[in-house]
Amino acid sequence: MSKSAENKKTNMAGKVLIYGASGGIGEATARLLNERGFDLHLTGRSREKVAAVADEVGAGYTVGDIAEEDYFRRTAEEAGNSLEGLVYAVGTINLKPMRRLNADDFLEDFKINAMGAALAVQASATALKNSTAETGSVVLYSSIAARQGFTFHTSIGMAKGAINGLTYSLAAELAPNVRVNAIAPSLTDTPLAASIVANRQMADSIAGLHPIPRLGSADEIASMTAFLISEDSGWMTGQIIGVDGGRSTLRTSG
Ligand SMILES: NC(=O)c1ccc[n+]([C@@H]2O[C@H](COP(=O)([O-])OP(=O)(O)OC[C@H]3O[C@@H](n4cnc5c(N)ncnc54)[C@H](OP(=O)(O)O)[C@@H]3O)[C@@H](O)[C@H]2O)c1
Questions:
Q1: Site to substitute for ligand 1 among 192, 217, 243, most atoms within 8 A of C-beta
Q2: CA of 38 to the centre of ligand 1 (A)
Q3: Domain spanning 15-243 has what CATH number?
Q4: What is the pLDDT of residues 168-186, one digit of tens each?
């Protein structure tokens, strides 16, 4: 009997580790996966914020910053030795003209967005291979800015380009036991985007650049995340999926 058939028979829900569950997309994903019966382990920098989400969804949690030396080992240990999924919803946005970026800006964006994702998967690789589902599933977050050039996005575009390379490489190396996919959103209304969408005029003007003329919502990105975690996407690995109102591929005027 396949692992998934066994699980359906015994009604076993797998565990998913969500990094950045105190953020917009991480929190929406935690709620959705909880509704779908997954057991969860969450992370966040602020104990208060992550504990509030964990209480709501009945999850365990780890508090810390990715800059801490033993953060990923500690989180992986606390999350347990079998994981059905890992979601790395940690990120930054640091939009500046090229001339104002310094080495620390580039390194910080790279470490938080890309290197952290690699270390998170490395620390939990064995647990993902022990998944009770047919495969373990990793979901990372790229960006529309890794596929299309935007002014002031030099540092984040570079860091998210690294996520694309990481997704392909890990998906090859961890197949067939673990699937690895990434979502590449356009501007989505979360705390990360708050400084950009705070100005209504700016938010409306960016919304209008999308063939579906609005910003994304955290729930829409969470839906795609839940699909990629679930066995409904069991034959998908090594994919970068745009959830972007059509902005990365379509031109509807001019
Ligand atoms: N929103 C968008 O428009 C958009 C577009 C493209 C890609 N994405 C990507 O989607 C993912 C989720 O973004 P989001 O919009 O949900 O962002 P968000 O609301 O700002 O959440 C980001 C999460 O990352 C955590 N975090 C940030 N720096 C950290 C650090 N040094 N150590 C540990 N945790 C840290 C935050 O913790 P705190 O709560 O403590 O700050 C928060 O939980 C990110 O990878 C982002 O780059 C978002």
A1: 192
A2: 22
A3: 3.40.50.720
A4: 999 999 999 999 999 999 9
